[in-house]
């Protein structure tokens, strides 16, 4: 069990060694400090846990990235029923693992949050369909785009000719 105090983290910034550290739960304890303030000793929200994980040694977060502490935190948060926090920690781990990020990494991160938010792809697909529908409609209206199949072109010519014949016939009758 991990029983920590949020204020003790700041003293360990850049010196925390978490690779190989195993725990199965985070003890959530609230207490009143000497000044009478309510203190959350073991926060389980994603923001605080990511901050804690970022207190590791720079080499463990950089070129020799150690994924274990991040995966351990994701596992524990999921087991505690904190699925949303677990996903946020997992996304942050992916960002750190992909340093320096390539264009593909950035696109993958923005489009579906490294696979942890696949429903975002539906939004991107709908947006793409809407944008291209508008572009093709405008292109067709301006005459920039048109059919290339001879049968369709001939059918359009026949429809235009028939419409012109009807209009001429209407004008004659008047």
Lateral strand order in the biggest sheet: 1-2
The biggest sheet, with number of strands, parallel, antiparallel or mixed sense and barrel status, is: 2 strands, antiparallel
Count structural domains. Answer: 2
Number of helices: 8
Gyration radius, in Å? 30 Å
Overall mean pLDDT score? 87
Binned, the helix content reads: 55-70%
Strand content: under 5%
Structural class: mainly alpha
**What order do the SSEs take from the amino end to the carboxyl end, as H and E?**
HEEHHHHHHH
Number of DSSP-assigned strands = 2
Q: Give the termini distance in whole angstroms.
A: 94 Å
- Poorly predicted runs: none
Which descriptor suits the 3D outline?
elongated
Protein model, in words:
The chain has 174 residues and is mainly α. The protein folds into two domains: 6-99, no CATH class; 123-173, no CATH class. It is built from eight helices and two strands. The protein has helices at 6-9, 46-53, 58-61, 68-79, 83-97, 103-112, 119-142, 150-173; strands at 30-32, 38-40. It has a two-stranded antiparallel ribbon. A hairpin with a 5-residue loop joins strand 1 and strand 2. Helix 2 (46-53) packs parallel to helix 5 (83-97) and helix 4 runs antiparallel to helix 5. The protein is elongated and about 95 Å long.
Fold blueprint:
Elements: H1 6-9, E1 30-32, E2 38-40, H2 46-53, H3 58-61, H4 68-79, H5 83-97, H6 103-112, H7 119-142, H8 150-173
Short description:
With 174 residues, the protein is mainly alpha-helical.
């Amino acid at each position: 069990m991990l029983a920590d105090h949020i204020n003790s983290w700041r003293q360990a910034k850049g010196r925390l060694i978490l690779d190989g550290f195993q725990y199965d739960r985070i003890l959530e304890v609230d207490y009143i400090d000497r000044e009478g303030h309510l203190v959350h000793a073991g926060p389980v929200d994603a923001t605080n846990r990511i901050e804690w994980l970022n207190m590791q040694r720079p080499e463990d977060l950089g070129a020799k990235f150690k994924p274990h502490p991040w995966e351990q935190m994701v596992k524990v948060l999921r087991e505690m029923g904190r699925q949303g926090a677990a996903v946020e920690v997992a996304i942050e781990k992916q960002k750190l693992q992909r340093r320096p990020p390539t264009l593909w990494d950035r696109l993958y991160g923005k489009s579906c949050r490294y696979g942890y938010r696949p429903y975002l792809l539906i939004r991107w697909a709908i947006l793409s369909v809407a944008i291209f529908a508008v572009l093709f409609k405008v292109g067709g209206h301006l005459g920039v785009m048109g059919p290339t199949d001879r049968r369709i072109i001939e059918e359009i010519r026949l429809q235009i000719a028939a419409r012109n014949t009807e209009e001429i016939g209407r004008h004659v009758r008047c």
